[in-house]
Amino acid sequence: MILFVFWALHLVLSARDFFPSLQDLCLACAPGALTPIQVVTGLTWTQLVSTDPKFATFLGSTLIDDGISGVGLAVFGMIVSVTGYRRGEKWAWYVSWSMPIGILAAQLNAYALTGSIMVIYLATAFTIISLLALLLPYRQFFPRKSLR
What we know:
148 residues
């Protein structure tokens, strides 16, 4: 259930990319911290649209593509977590490792862009909870073999 909830959260956060104007919001940043768009361009999304509409259109389409990929991955993760993972199938356990690895990579990238330590705190919490969700049922996926 924990992995399903995290994948659902990933779905919501990925769907945010369908609306490039929401890039002015940094959900994991400390108050007053710069958003990734501000760090890279020096402008808010609104300013970028008004000063360089062609680049903003290109960047917006790239964000939408990222959103499509993220939503697809989230739906796949949700399906795996309620089917194969729940039944204790080994392949689902291996596939589910993409959650903590992906969270860690994405948050480290956000930290590299924004420098917000809040991102590291969130990455640590999500990664620890994901690892617990993967490691606590380990024996379900890899039962001990009898010595007969």
